[in-house]
Amino acid sequence: MNGKILPVLALALLGTEPCLAQTSGPRIEGIVVNGTQNEKPVAGAEVILRAGAEGSLQPVAQTVTDRDGRFVLDKFPAEAEGIILPGANHQGVHYPGPRIPHLSGAKIPRVKLVVFEAVPSPNPLVVDLHEIDVHIHKGALEVTETLWINNPSLTTYVGQAATDSSLSTLSLTIPDGFERVTFHKEFLGRRFRLVEKRLVTDIPWTPGKREVKFTYHLPIEENKKSLEWSSDAPCSLVRLRLQGENADRFESNLARVAKRDQSTFVFESSEAIMPAGQSITLQLGALPTPWIGYLRWSALGVLAGLILVTAGFRWKRRTHSPHKSGVEILADS
Description:
alpha+beta
């Protein structure tokens, strides 16, 4: 009878974990609590353990919390190494916990994983600071935007379906004609998409602050007289900085503030809170002309000169011709 019990116990221990070689690694114990409900324990929450190097963490084990919100992870694949990262799923959102060095046999403190209630509305997001840095170059403007997004609530904002039937939690308007948008954090770059000249994301916004920073280029066009930005979240402070040649000839609908140096000009919002959707505009002044522009105008000048010389030569030939005109010849006949 004992021989039959042992295989059953072995199967129970394996549960639904991946069929990989197991090893006795660090024992991770913890609890999952609901931050929206005063850290009430969450029963039946899925806990996933990831392991590997930074940027390549892969799931290696999982379990479910008991009725008191507690969990234990003590069986890891033999190849699990580097950083280990426990996290919990709740209402479709994953909440990562602390990164832990994977030290064999090391005693790991009890882990607390905090989750929050997910809400589709209303939108609680506020932009604490929106900085727009414009560097003026010959041929293009280099623009870097930095937004500090704040969710002051105790819920996770997951948004509602946009016009294309996909979820949207934040939408940003950037000037038309931009090129090569590069996010400073690769994760964010994968989560934003372009929809009707707007950068849109479905990132769930957990409580607290998060930085969003990206850079793009705007080719200088002669017919472009102004640039425009906006977001669908209210903003506490907007700061627009200009650097480069002829920066003093630019104007904005924001208030100009004292210069920090001879080449930097700053504009800032004067309202306590800038409403969602309100435009930030920058009127372009005289822009430095790139070398290709000089060549183009030089070519046009040479072409115009050739046309004038050719026209003058033809006129001179006509005035010295023995026949004054074709009309007079017909009249004499």
